[in-house]
Amino acid sequence: MPSDFIAVGGVDFDAIVAPPGVSFADWRDYLALLKPRVMSLVVFSAACALFTAPGHIHPFIGFVAILCVAVGAGAAGALNQWYEADIDAVMKRTANRPVPAGRVAAHEALAFGVALAVGSVVVMGLGVNWLAASILAGSILFYTIIYTVWLKRRTPQNIVIGGLAGAFPPLIGWTSVTGNVSVLPLLMVAIIFLWTPPHFWSLALFMEADYAKAGVPMLPVVAGEAATRRQILLYTLVLVPVTLLPWAFGLTGAVYGAIAAVAGALFIVRAVAVFRNTATVATAMGPERALFRYSLYYLFVIFAALVADHLLLA
């Protein structure tokens, strides 16, 4: 007998299949709707901008601001999974997500996402300031409407344009403290914007068959692997100099500049390896996977260096 068998009056409730439109989800399914891995990067980049912004913010208000960013990012993730349930269902990487797997009904995911989106924006506006709330609302709408609904199924540039949605958090963190926009958070936005294509296209290279099966026009599916590898390298060669601009403009010190230079050089080395790979099919053990995994750590390292540099100069 399975350890999670539940029986009352001789009825095995684990064997009951939920009727259409009804879910038997637990808290882990609703957590999965929030895309916690994506949320962690969003929250981290917003927090880094909040810590480096000039001025003072009460710790509790700062906590509220970061919480709202996290909830808003989760709302966008839930709405994305609600709309893309048909795509997710045919892709191995996403087939077990709560909505396509049938653990959460579609209308529940929609209601959950809308409630979190509205709640996060309202609390941000009332508890922090309305400029930060407006940018948060714009990022949620951009990711949900512009990227998910409009771009993803229509153009191989979906990641390029849609990446702007994930680049907003530093601006939200900064304006939560200052109430205005400055050069440094805009450079942080540019860094995330330029980082997104090589990050996602390296994933798309070894997930190409999944995207093709789902009918998603990712760049490797539409333009081929050679063109994708070339674009990854080109974006990387633009990204790395941009990461050095905060130091070049005198907005940070040498600590950030040195770490950004070393991390960027390693990024270029991996991008060159992807560009030079002539394998017919990218594999999970190839340079594409190595670049994808490194790109995750790269952004954390860059923004952590920004905070460390700020604390050393304070």
Task: Quickly list its features.
two-stranded antiparallel sheet; Tetracycline Repressor, domain 2; Four Helix Bundle (Hemerythrin (Met), subunit A); mainly alpha
How is the topology of this model organized?
Elements: E1 7-8, E2 11-12, H1 27-33, H2 36-52, H3 59-83, H4 85-90, H5 106-127, H6 130-151, H7 158-167, H8 169-178, H9 183-206, H10 208-214, H11 219-223, H12 225-248, H13 254-276, H14 287-313
Antiparallel strand pairs: 1-2
Question: How would you characterize this protein structure?
Answer:
- The protein is an all-alpha fold.
- The chain has two domains: 20-180, Tetracycline Repressor, domain 2 (Orthogonal Bundle); 182-314, Four Helix Bundle (Hemerythrin (Met), subunit A), CATH 1.20.120.
- It has helices at residues 27-33, 36-52, 59-83, 85-90, 106-127, 130-151, 158-167, 169-178, 183-206, 208-214, 219-223, 225-248, 254-276, 287-313; strands at residues 7-8, 11-12.
- A hairpin with a 2-residue loop joins strand 1 and strand 2.
- The longest helix is centred in the C-terminal third of the chain and has 27 residues, at 287-313.
